[in-house]
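Researcher: Please predict.
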Amino acid sequence: MNLRLPPRIKVLEALGALADGRVRVLAPGRCEVVSSEGDKTYTVYVAGGYAYSNDNGTVHRGYVGYPILACLMAGGALPVDRELAEKLRGIPWKRLNEQFKKYEEVMRFIYAERGIDRAKAEGYITRVLGEVVKLRLRFKPPP
């Protein structure tokens, strides 16, 4: 099954995970990513056009979940905006997603609260998603 593109906010979640030091590279294309609440650890494998992560977005909704994006960023396969990453440190993603119910509202809140240039952030998200399209990732559980 081909994995779909994620909601745009997932690029920011992945970058935030990287900034928080919640991405542990175990080997090339193999990572563990700790959730923003610290209560879950996601296992990620990416190799040969296949990707797997045990997060809800990947398993249940069929899109490239933020742990996969974070692993690809940590491994150098996706661009990282260090300045934006710094502004995304310590964001309680799960709590905000539950509070606002809509990703667009969470993004609007984060941009305002953290003083993030929306146009610049949106340009970065578009660039990352463009690279994800080129990867043409398919879902495959690890061996």
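Model: The mean pLDDT is 96.
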